[in-house]
Specification:
This protein is of the alpha+beta class. Helix content is 53%, strand content 7%. The chain contains 12 helices and 6 strands. Strands 2-1-3-4 form a 4-stranded antiparallel sheet. Strands 5-6 form a two-stranded antiparallel ribbon. The protein is elongated, with a radius of gyration of 26 Å.
């Protein structure tokens, strides 16, 4: 029995048998009048209704079809050899990012395509390899700025009288170290709060830039190091959403830990939603809750595996972190896109 690849909603899917194409046509998930198909032995993609052996199967939907496509040229690879895994030419242009005008990709019902942890990690690894030089540069610059900012703010905090740390003194009777009784002034508290707030804003600002770069990489769009500093307009929203998220997770962890983990998994996509869709504070949290419906166990598995990968990178003389972090970072973005649009975002790197 022949198996077919088909293009629907700007994404290549398959292989599937003819019976599955008939079923999809009946449910509206495949349009034989517009969607293109291909199988082994065909020179190029064609609308299903223009394929002789398929036309009769969809006669009610395609009886007035022309015998050749009129809205788009079939996809042909640059090498000259047909590649069934290349994205097919769809009747309409689909933009890569849902935040861009002209993107008409349809989101899947929440939880209808469960995440596959291994596939997300594998795709993250492929994307890192395909963009190795730029990805490593982005990660190194991100890490260097974060570390420098933390060090500078730590020094500033100390110079301004903050940095509240308990001192130690030797007990003259026992000869043991004992904590000093150190009076904490309101000024010290204020300095620590302000300095740490600024440091946190810098961290959120950089994280937004990393999210934008990650989305572009996963979508196959161009990206630059400068994008690391290009999301300032979303900083306040992201900070406030992160504050609410952090408080909710903290409260949940206090309540027997499990509620905190649940909240972290369901609402943790808020930052991607703000960058990707320019959402507001509450809107981004609600959107995260929606797309993660039915995905908590795969997300937990992805979080655990990502943690283990980073630990392995640290154990590899710390140098491995430069490679481990990009994998888990990109795997997380792949998971976000998967929950939005399904597993079609996971494709072999070109």
């Amino acid at each position: 029995m022949s198996e077919w690849y088909y293009a629907h909603g700007g994404e290549q899917k398959g292989p599937v048998p003819v019976s599955e194409l008939q079923r999809l046509a009946g449910t509206g998930e495949f349009d034989p009048a517009a969607d293109l198909v291909w199988r082994d032995g065909m020179p190029d993609w064609k609308p299903a209704g223009a394929v002789e052996e398929l036309g009769s199967l969809f006669q009610p939907a395609t009886e007035e079809l022309p015998t050749a496509p009129t809205t788009a040229e079939p996809a042909t690879p640059a090498s000259g050899d047909f590649n069934p895994y290349a994205a097919p030419a769809a009747p309409e242009t689909v933009m890569a990012s849902s935040g861009m005008a002209g993107d008409d990709r349809q989101e899947i019902p929440p939880g209808s395509d469960p995440l596959q942890v291994g596939a997300c990690i594998s795709r993250g690894f492929e994307l890192m390899k395909a963009n190795l030089g730029m990805v490593i540069a982005v990660v190194v610059i991100f890490g260097a700025i974060s570390w420098t900012a933390g060090s500078v703010f730590g020094v500033i905090e100390g110079l301004l009288g903050g940095g509240i740390q308990p001192g130690f003194e030797i007990d003259p009777q026992t000869g043991e170290f004992q904590p000093q009784n150190q009076e904490i002034t309101p000024a010290q508290v204020l300095v620590s709060i302000v300095v740490n707030l600024i440091n946190q804003l810098v961290s959120v600002f950089l994280a937004l830039g990393m999210t934008r770069i990650g989305l572009n990489i996963v979508d196959g769009r161009e990206f630059t190091i400068g994008m690391l500093f290009g999301e300032a307009g979303k900083l306040v929203r992201a900070f406030l959403a992160g504050l609410l998220y952090g408080l909710a997770v903290a409260v949940g962890l206090v309540l027997l830990i499990v509620p905190g983990i649940y909240i972290a998994l369901r609402y943790g996509q808020y930052q991607s939603a703000i960058v990707d869709r320019d959402m507001g504070v509450m809107e981004s949290l609600a959107y995260s809750s929606r797309i993660t419906e039915g995905q908590k166990w795969p997300l937990l598995g992805l979080a655990i595996l990502s943690f283990l990968i980073v630990i392995a990178g640290v154990l590899a003389l710390c140098v491995g972190v430069v490679f481990a972090y990009p994998i888990v970072w990109l795997a997380g973005v792949v998971a976000y896109r998967w929950m939005q649009y399904g597993s079609g975002v996971v494709r072999p790197a070109n």
